[in-house]
From TrEMBL:
Localization per record: Lysosome
Originating organism: Pipistrellus kuhlii (Kuhl's pipistrelle)
Function recorded in the entry: Lysosomal serine protease with tripeptidyl-peptidase I activity. May act as a non-specific lysosomal peptidase which generates tripeptides from the breakdown products produced by lysosomal proteinases. Requires substrates with an unsubstituted N-terminus.
A molecular-function term among this protein's GO annotations: metal ion binding
Keyword set includes tRNA-binding: no
InterPro entries cross-referenced by the UniProt entry: Peptidase_S8/S53_dom, Peptidase_S8/S53_dom_sf, S53_propep, Sedolisin_dom, Tripeptidyl-peptidase_I
SMART domains per record: Pro-kuma_activ
Keyword Signal: yes
Assembly and binders: Monomer. Interacts with CLN5. Interacts with CLN3.
Designated name of the protein: Tripeptidyl-peptidase 1
Reaction(s) the record says it catalyses: Release of an N-terminal tripeptide from a polypeptide, but also has endopeptidase activity
Entry's EC annotation: 3.4.14.9
Length: 563
């Protein structure tokens, strides 16, 4: 009877009290370090909010992804078009009608959808938004290294119960842009200088991973690759040109980015933005490169969410995307995490390879009720992305075997169960690792990551026309691995094969063939007596520090070129 009363008429859509619900009751609302409030936003100021509409047929998506990503499947490589994905997941006519009616009645305007129709972005005044989303209260904040301004609500919002089966969450209220965890480490001390290198450059990467001068894009295919940036950071063409002049002399490469999606600011270049572009374009050399540049166009938009909308609104996209974005799993609402994971499934069904950095905090650490636990990162923990960890040279000045970079993010999700494709590899690690942390620190049945790794320590980057040494983080390893997969896609396309698509089922089936196994070193974690700062340790085969290992290009190409 109560629910019936809530559903009566359009008035129900503006109901309060018992006729409302909270879509994101578990979203963390504490202000991230380094951000301060500048006070309430003027009620007449404009906002841009994104409504994630409930999708259909989600139970069919995992099976579809498995079918197109498993080399043993007759459907392997037969990816869906964006239009076919839209046909599958498009919200019901009732959902579309109900939400549009609610928004129009509230005075929302300029509502823009995407091809899949499962997101709606609308403009409205702060006054209208606070009436529409009961409990919300919009403040302006400033923070981050670039003194970024954002508009967010420090208080939870509620929606009419009549919308519970139609809206997953509303974007633009709570999540703050992440800050870069890249670090510039002090230069190691060398005992001697004969035959040494002075940090990681494209030629060092190409030597270590056995790329020859001929291992570049052919220039004859429509192959492309992309990196996505969510910080208030930009790359400069002049930095890329100087970087290639300094470090790109021994391989063919493209002189500029082919396509920028989003807004390229005119401010100072950021080290992270420069690093992404320079190493994607030197590992995946001579391949057309796109950059998604901080696509959050309004202070109230979430840049990462805006990137997901762009993926759902463009039929022809690069096959490989790399991103260094990450948040603590526990800081995000369940509704948000599950919906973002669905967006990754949509991408996998279309044959997109999404590579995410595993993070730069090792196993992570947090304390709940006085008890320490490791702290997984998302999207690194999503079962539908390929997560890249980090390594160092055993001798930082020589091209040697690789060991664990102690910052390399890895561990076990507290949200997603272990992915079926990794069942055997993870069970083997858990049963054979000689020094596992106490079981209370991690969820042994969760999705385990990373899947692969690459060098993450001691990079040279050119930013604002200045060469900067010893830059470190999995933000470096991710574009390197992405560029190498783009080279493999180039060979596949020339052979009439489809791009690799979602790599994980194949990667685990082939037991890491074509990768250098990293078996030495541990990553960092909680600084307490029980674990003394040590998380997981690497070992033979897959491990939650470096995954299956780092790329050996000729062997990996041989492994992945057919079928």
């Amino acid at each position: 009877m109560k629910l019936g009363a809530c559903l009566l008429g359009l008035l129900a859509l503006f109901g309060v009290g018992k006729c409302t619900y909270s879509p994101e009751p578990d979203q963390q609302l504490t202000l991230p370090p380094g951000w301060v409030s500048l006070g309430r936003v003027d009620p007449e100021e404009d906002l841009s909010l994104t409504f994630a509409l409930r999708q259909q047929n989600l139970e069919r998506l995992p099976k579809l992804v498995q079918a197109v990503s498993d080399p043993g499947s007759p459907r392997y490589g037969k990816y869906l078009s964006l239009e076919e994905v839209a046909e599958l997941v498009r919200p019901s006519p009732l959902t579309l009608h109900t939400v549009q009616k609610w928004l129009l009645a509230a005075g929302a305007r300029n509502c823009q959808s995407v091809i899949t129709q499962d997101f709606l972005t609308c403009r409205m005044s702060v006054r209208q938004a606070e009436l529409l989303l009961s409990g919300s209260e919009f403040h302006r904040y400033v923070g981050g290294p670039a003194e970024t301004h954002v508009v967010r609500s420090p208080r939870p919002y509620r929606l009419p119960k009549a919308l519970a089966s139609h809206v997953d969450f509303v974007g633009g209220l709570h999540r703050f842009p992440p800050t870069s965890s890249l670090r510039q480490r002090p230069e190691p001390q060398a005992a001697e200088t004969v035959g040494l290198h002075l940090g990681v450059t494209p030629s060092i990467i190409r030597k270590r991973y056995n790329l020859t001068a001929q291992d570049v894009g052919s220039g004859t295919t429509n192959n492309s690759q992309a990196c996505a940036q969510f910080l208030e950071q930009y790359f400069h063409d002049s930095d890329l040109a100087e970087f290639m002049q300094l470090f790109g002399g021994d391989f063919a490469h493209q002189a500029s980015v082919a396509h920028v999606v989003g807004q390229q600011g005119r401010g100072r270049a950021g080290i992270e933005a420069s690093l992404d572009v320079e190493y994607l374009m030197s590992a995946g050399a001579n391949i057309s490169t796109w950059v998604y540049s901080n696509p959050g166009r309004h202070e109230s938009q979430e840049p990462f969410l805006q990137w997901l909308l762009l993926l759902s609104n463009e039929s022809a996209l690069p096959p490989v995307h790399t991103a260094s974005y990450g948040d603590d799993e526990d800081s995000l609402s369940s509704a948000y995490i599950q919906r973002v994971n669905t967006e990754f499934m949509k991408a996998a069904a279309r044959g997109l390879t999404l590579l995410f950095a595993s993070g730069d905090s090792g196993a992570g650490c947090w304390s709940t009720s006085g008890r320490h636990q490791f702290r997984p990162s998302f999207p690194a923990s999503s079962p539908y992305v390929t997560t890249v960890g980090g390594t160092s040279f055993q001798n930082p000045f020589r091209i040697t075997n690789e060991i664990v970079d102690y910052i390399s993010g890895g561990g076990f999700s507290n949200v997603f169960p272990r992915a079926p494709y990794q069942e055997e590899a993870v069970a083997k690690f858990l049963s054979s690792s000689p020094k596992l942390p106490p079981s209370s620190y991690f969820n042994a049945s969760g999705r385990a990551y990373p899947d692969v790794a690459a060098l993450s320590d001691g990079y040279w980057v050119v930013s604002n026309r200045v060469p900067i040494p010893w830059v470190s983080g999995t933000s470096a390893s991710t574009p390197v691995f992405g560029g190498i997969l783009s080279l493999i896609n180039e060979h596949r396309i020339l052979n009439g094969r489809p791009p690799l698509g979602f790599l994980n089922p194949r990667l685990y089936q082939q037991h890491g063939a074509g990768l250098f196994d990293v078996t030495r070193g541990c990553h960092e974690s909680c600084l307490n007596e029980e674990v003394q700062g040590q998380g997981f340790c690497s070992g033979p085969g897959w491990d939650p520090v470096t995954g299956w290992g780092t790329p050996n290009f000729p062997a990996l190409l041989k492994t992945l070129i057919d079928p």
